[in-house]
Amino acid sequence: MTYRSFVLSGIALLALGACASPAVQTDSALRVRLDSLVAGHPGWHLGTTADSKNQYLTQMQRDEPGYEPYRASGDFDRDGINDVAVVLVRGDSGVIVWLRGVSSGYASPLPIDSLSWASNGGLFTNHDTLGFGVFYSDVFRSWAWDSAARALRPASHTPGSLEP
Fold first, then answer.
1. Looking at the 3D structure of the chain, how many domains does it have?
2. Which domain holds residue 40?
3. Pairwise CA distance, residues 124 & 97, whole Å
4. Residue 9 within a domain
């Protein structure tokens, strides 16, 4: 490869990156934020289906194909831009983290709550409410946008929840 073709191929790659669809750019921005989040929390990892010990996960995934227990998306802050929530996992414990969608990608991750029973449940959304609960039970926690505080705040915890 000559120097000229090397430079031209580099310019072509830069042009392709600049012309990438917003979805590709958003996915890339999310990946960067998630990689940084995990790197900043040694011993923790992004939750995967393999981390779930809930006996009903298979049924949940049959009912909702593509369901991932430790990742959810929605417009939680009602600004018209998609947000993402993930769960960092270590053993049975988890930290729910919100990545607020912004026009340039995603804002810095914000921890929402920590749970000692993360391996027994999963994230869910209901309109603009984010929740985490044990599948097919009334044990859950949820968070909704508080426009006055400009933050996600606890919306409800069931009396039978596994923790206060």
1. 1
2. 22-157
3. 13
4. no
Report how far apart the first and last C-alpha atoms of the chain are (Å, whole number).
64
User: Half-sphere exposure of residue 139, counting CA atoms within 13 Å on the CB side?
Assistant: 16
Domain membership of residue 40 (yes or no) is yes
| DSSP strand pairing (140-146 vs 129-133) | antiparallel
Sign of CA dihedral 18, 23, 26, 32: negative
C-alpha to C-alpha distance for 129 and 76, rounded to whole angstroms:
6
Residue pLDDT, tens place only, 33-45: 999 999 999 999 9
Asked if residue 6 belongs to a domain, the reply is: no
Per-residue pLDDT tens over the stretch 132-155:
999 988 889 999 999 999 999 998
Domain annotation covers residue 150: yes
Tell me, rounded to whole angstroms, the distance of Cα 3 from its chain centroid. 43
